Amino acid sequence: MISDDLRRISGFTANWLSSYDEDSIAGPDSLHIPEIADFGAITSEINKLNDSLAIADESKIIRKANIAVFSSKGRLPFGSRIGFSHTHRYAENNIRFTSDILIPGQTFITSSLSLAKLEINGSFVEMQFLDQDYKLSPWAPCTTIEFATLPLLVILKNKAGHCLEIGCGSDVWRWNNGLNIDEMSQKYKLSFESGTVIYERIICDVEDETVVTARSYRFTWFLAWSYNLPAKEVGETLDCPLSKNGEVDTKKLRDDLTEHMTICLDLHKITVDEKSLKTDQSMCFAKRKNMSRLKSMIRKIISNSAATNPLIIKNLNPGICTNGSHLDRKTEHLHWDYPQILDFAAWTRHQCPEREIYCEPISIPSQTAIFQQTNHEQNEIDYEYNEDGL
Question: What pTM was computed for the model?
Fold first, then answer.
């Protein structure tokens, strides 16, 4: 039997709490973010069968490398035994979700596939959307709206200025393709009912019973949040010195740096080839080569400076891209790279847990807190279900 506290993941700075039902592969069963929102159970549904009905083959939580990870998998005990596999990665102000829908042979979809329906209690007064053309709408009063295509980002703000974000993963093309059925429709609806926000994401809806190609269908998304806090005061700064080939000049960095000086790494000063750029002509962080290079620069800065030297990363801003080679694909695939920025922030915090780190300018509210410290280093918990029990 799993004790209740092993089914919880908590925050370090804001005391948020995520809880999982020990008998379900779905979830979280509840999520409390102080002063922002309370979530009901997050579940997915296919052919009107909820993933909370699945028989669990495995469920585990691991806390390491500055993140906490919940993962589970199981199959519905009905029909063709459709499977679900979920992975939830927690940093201090965001959760990144990956869901695989495992479709066996001779499976028919008779109604719809709804992924991660959200029911949120929160006193939000304004909303904003980022569409797939990367156009950000102006702030507007909260009102029910239905989208023709999935927005990259939905931002909800309360009276205190605290924000909740619901974002599409980098795999925009997967959401747009759904289950790759010709005669299908999609529905993305955000509604507000008596203090409850309902966000419904139906990625495949059919009128007639339709066979689905047997394979695993993956979809990713994220939640992020931020508090309306005063801007940080920055003392004396040093622009990170770069060599002629665009790498960190470690000798000059050591020579010019004083004990409490802030290091400023400006990503716009890093030269990358044209094939590595996204639509706005800045570095695409979805490209592995770009991210590997950036991580190498961070390692050099860390090893040639002290924890007392704060680090500012400038122009760490997301955007859209269609270059499929960034995703190791041969054809164009629409994606955006904020999820990779969230991954990078968690990795960077793990490399230097004591150092103050932040980015500027801020284009998305949650960027103010993506480098916050976590408490996920303190414990490592690993448990799993199998056919014989725990």
Answer: 0.92
